[in-house]
Amino acid sequence: MSDTLHSVRLDKWLWAARFYKTRAVAAEAIDGGKVDVNGERAKRSRHLAPGDRISLRLGQYEWHVLVRGVSERRGPAPEAQLLYEETPESVARRAALKVQLDSMPSFFGHGEGKPTKQDRRAIRRLKGDH
Fold first, then answer.
1. Global pTM?
2. By CB distance 3.0 to 4.6 Å, which of 44, 58, 69, 100 could disulfide with 1?
């Protein structure tokens, strides 16, 4: 965290805070409308300062965070976590969604693999291709 910076571009901050792996991916998410700052849709060049509120959608999860610090450098994860504070409501919603998603049955099973010769014959009989 840098004490000399007062603000930083949104795409740089999202990358430095480790929400996205690259700045290009962060910029793509911003341009796609997945990131709001202080309740408004943001542009990647928008400058963030401590106290700003960010809402972002990552996959099926939605994060609501408060900016605590700014940095243009991507550091280790413990340092990146000092840049923001997630709201308690956001933590609760993400946990509830995780429980819900974990309890859903998976749709893709690995099955038995390649059908055997006997299975292929049974399939042909069902299709009427004697």
1. 0.74
2. 69
